[in-house]
Specification:
Low-confidence stretches of chain B: 1-21
Radius of gyration of chain B: 24 Å
Number of strands of chain A: 0
Distance between the termini of chain A: 24 Å
CATH topology of chain A: MetI-like fold
Helix content of chain A: over 70%
Membrane topology (chain A): Multi-pass membrane protein
InterPro entries (chain A): MetI-like, MetI-like_sf
Low-confidence stretches of chain A: 1-10
Strand content of chain A: under 5%
Family (chain A): Belongs to the binding-protein-dependent transport system permease family.
CATH class of chain A: Mainly Alpha
Helix content of chain B: over 70%
Number of helices of chain A: 12
Number of strands of chain B: 0
CATH topology of chain B: MetI-like fold
Oligomer: heterodimer
Shape of chain B: globular
Protein name (chain A): ABC transporter permease subunit
Number of domains of chain B: 1
Order of helices and strands of chain B: HHHHHHHHHHH
Shape of chain A: globular
Subcellular location (chain A): Cell membrane
């Protein structure tokens, strides 16, 4: 009985290789169409460039000191903004979870903050801090902070009563209770906030670099546009896309393993 | 032992408390929050001359609307946001639905949608600018590229979580595929679609303003960069305030709709 049930439920609609094969076919087909369009002259090379040219351009790009510098600039800005934002976010999340009186109101503000175009504040920050990385780091931190704080509050609110009793019966001090019981218990819910925050931080870092910075991957895309280096511009866009997709893959993996720890 | 029992009473006391008694009413707290923000703003503006003070900002806001340029820029931006957002809805809902109802399509496309979602869309702006020029089409497509992702993701999630019982109910009364989509699956997915719309409008709005800042013929982003270049903090703050108000109003409206729908 259970065997047939399991067999019916786990019977894949298609064999396992068909999903990745279709995905690969879609991606390859996309680039093949692009290449064919460019080769036939349907797609203006000054607008669309062409995959084969972009690949050679990419090969030139990789390993040059310029790219290494840009990558380092982007990653350090991202790391600084994310770390500040995540720590502030966890702190605010804990504070909001404990101040039950104002919880609803502060959470509303946090949700509202999510819809405020924070990036729009950069000219204001620019006038205060000048043209350096300060404004970018602040905006990135603010963008990271919101989802982390919301998820921390939610995670701490969802802690089973049993664990709260455990902390009390072990007579843990407040900080020890948070460090050893509550925060570890809330991690499966906090992590999605960190993931969303990290992706938002990446998007914001690139976006800020694109409009204000003088180094970084986002800056390089904008700069190659302004200098009409179309092929170089596409190559730079590919670098950003690959970086973003890799980051997303890694974060998804981590999240999945965290969830599995919880359910089993 | 005493600690535990104290904990217990505190928790139980909190639950028994009638709403509105013992804790300040929400409206009052909101008012206090707003006052706190304005106070902090005023104090910060005293520290630095680069910051427009609240009063000066309101004055600049009034002057901007009286002279017409601010209303014009806001209308320009909103028009293109609406265009891109509408397009994202028109594309995102049917495409998301198609991906969600077919298991094979879901397994093929969901990772691709997720991958697309992690890309900072702003890097596509140069492509759009070379394609369409600096006019309205480029920033409208930027708004579309930004808004389509949250709409797609939420439609997919909403449709996929439709309870099997509802689907079977629809089949038993022999609903046509169209009715099945509208009356059962999309009806179920509606609250999530609203979440997607809220997020989508937010990023479409930012993306359009950023596109305008980078290069466009008009709109709030253009005014923002002009005010920054002209070193007029009050004007700059007035424009930022407009964007914040627009975002807050749209967000609140969609939240209200969401709350009414979910009872």
């Amino acid at each position: 009985m259970s065997a047939t049930l399991r067999a019916r439920r786990s019977r894949p609609p298609r064999a396992g290789w068909q999903v990745p094969a279709t995905q690969a076919a879609l991606v390859v087909g996309f680039f093949a169409l692009w290449e064919a369009g460019a080769a036939s002259g349907l797609l203006d090379p000054l607008t669309w460039s062409r995959p084969s040219v972009i690949v050679t351009e990419l090969a030139d790009l990789i390993g040059t000191p310029e790219t290494v510098n840009d990558l380092a600039a982007t990653l350090t800005t991202l790391a600084a903004g994310f770390l500040i934002g995540a720590s502030v976010g966890v702190g605010i999340g804990i504070a909001v979870a404990r101040l039950r009186r104002v919880q609803a109101v502060v959470s509303t503000y946090l949700v509202a903050l999510q819809s405020v175009p924070l990036l729009v504040f950069y000219p204001v920050l620019l006038t205060i801090f000048g043209l350096n990385r300060g404004p970018t780091v602040i905006v990135v931190a603010a963008v990271t902070m919101v989802p982390v704080a919301l998820n921390t509050t939610a995670g701490l609110g969802a802690i089973p009563r049993g664990l709260q009793r455990l902390a009390t019966s072990l007579m843990l001090s407040r900080s020890a209770a948070y460090r050893k019981v509550f925060l570890p218990a809330a991690i499966p819910l906090i992590f999605p906030g960190l993931r969303v925050g990290f992706l938002a931080a990446l998007v914001t870092t690139i976006g800020m670099e694109f409009i204000v910075a003088s180094a970084g991957l986002g800056y390089r895309v904008g700069q190659s546009y302004h200098t009409f280096a179309v092929d170089r511009m596409y190559a730079n866009i590919v670098v950003v896309c690959v970086l973003a997709i890799l980051v997303n893959l890694v974060l998804t993996r981590i999240e999945r393993s965290l969830r599995r720890d919880v359910t089993t | 032992m005493t600690v535990a029992s104290k904990q217990e009473t505190r928790v139980r006391g909190g639950q028994a408390d009638a709403p509105g008694r013992g804790r300040p009413p929400a409206a009052l707290l909101h008012l206090a929050g707003l006052a706190l923000i304005i106070l902090a703003w005023q104090l910060l503006s005293l520290l630095s001359s680069h910051l427009g003070a609240p009063l000066a900002t309101i004055e600049a806001l009034g002057r901007g609307f009286a002279d017409g340029w601010l209303a014009e820029a806001t209308a320009d931006t909103l028009l293109h946001v609406a265009g891109g957002f509408g397009l994202a809805l028109a594309v995102g809902v049917p495409v998301g639905y198609a991906i969600a109802v077919n298991d094979f399509a879901y397994r093929v496309f969901d990772p691709l949608v997720q991958a697309y979602g992690s890309i900072p869309r702003i890097v596509f702006l140069p492509i759009l600018l070379t394609l369409f020029g600096a006019g309205g089409a480029a920033k409208m497509s930027m708004g579309f590229l930004a808004a389509v992702f949250p709409i797609l993701v939420n439609v997919i999630a909403g449709v996929r979580t439709t309870p099997q019982a509802l689907v079977r109910l629809g089949r038993s009364v022999e609903l046509r595929p169209w009715a099945m989509a509208v009356k059962i699956r999309m009806r179920w997915a509606l609250p999530l679609l609203l979440v997607g719309m809220r997020l989508g409008f937010g990023i479409a709005f930012v993306s359009v303003v950023i596109s305008e800042y980078f290069g466009s013929t008009g709109g709030l982003g253009v005014e923002l960069s002009a005010a920054y270049a002209a070193l007029e903090p009050a004007r700059l703050f007035a424009i930022v305030l407009v964007t914040v108000i627009v975002a807050a109003v749209v967000n609140t409206v969609l939240l209200r709709v969401d709350r009414r729908l979910s009872g």
